[in-house]
Amino acid sequence: MNSMRKNLLMVIPNLGLGGAQRAFHDHSVELSKYYNVTEAVFDLDLDNLYPSGNRLESLQVAGGGGPVQKVSNFFRRVRELKRLKKRLRTDICISHLEGADYVNLLSKGQEKVILLIQGSKTHDRNISGLTGWLRKDVLMPMLYKRADRIVCVSRDIIPEMINDYGVAPGKLSAINNSFEVESVWERAQEPLPPAMQAVYESGPILVTSGRLAIQKNQKPLLDIFAELHKTQPAKLVFIGDGELRVELVEHARSLGLRVYEAWAETPLTPEFDVYFVGLQHNPFQYIRPATAFVFPSAWEGFPLALGEAMTCGVPVVSTDCPTGPREMLAPDSDTPARPIRTAEWAKYGLLMPMLTDAATLAADQKIWVETLRTLLADAGKRQQLGQAARLRSNDFTHANTFRRWQKLIDEVLAE
Prior knowledge:
transferase; Rossmann fold; Glyco_trans_4-like_N; glycosyltransferase activity
């Protein structure tokens, strides 16, 4: 440990598989170039799938149990983090994810505290019920204003923090997520396994990547693809897994689509329409040769999957959801006051109507079908959009992002 450097503690509730955990790893690796970085988690119940090589501490406080146990665990975490901060002589503590934010703020001593907001809070449909009310109407408004600085991964999260949670504008900054641009492009050159290569050679390929979960909103994408498929031969490839796996597979079959499941003992052939290939060690080899990348999310932060698809040089088609896609694909445009109802052919990709409003869903899906049909018929436009997307992804390199992080941290430490 370099005694001349400031001591930076990074906190996240858990390790395991996820976009936040990947971002946590990137921050740990990059910020260790300038500070003494220690990582902390509530407990080690999940494997560390993104090891950084930096020191890792566990508060050794598990989750679970009934309401009384959860409250007890919460305050134990606050006590243990406070002790850890003192033991490490922490100068600044950065928390990733909301649960870690609360513990970071309530354990605050002389050290500076920065919160990293990875996604929209206002539009997050997982924040619901009594617990959601407690988080949105009590905890966030009461605690977030205690932070020395709050960093949002998208510019469009800043108004939420001001208007919905009462954070002073001067405490807020936007620093986008970064991607391993060079590494993603290099890994994207790996050839597909022969059986999958045969699938890709059999017709146009639409690919999407992400957890099979409510946020990613893949169900209406299947309806769109089923309608498109009636007049346009194509394949739809899902990369990822999650709690909605069974529901999505059943819905695809109910639409008359032939479904391949990687977890079933079925030979991989070009005879299927929809391919659920599960988690992939190298998803980029599936994305780069695709005809287009489709992204139907209901809400985001600054989506890694979309940025990595752009890095692969494939044309991207995304909902104009809160937050991130517009900032990535049409950075010079303002966020519209109302959801868009038509396709927007932006500079770096296609922004599309969201697929969450029951009153307009049929019309919005029709726009998607027509737009995808147009895109699949225009090889020149696809090439132009793919090249533009790859060029835009260079704005999201680690070097660009963490230069801004270092400047911000040094400013906070000097206050």
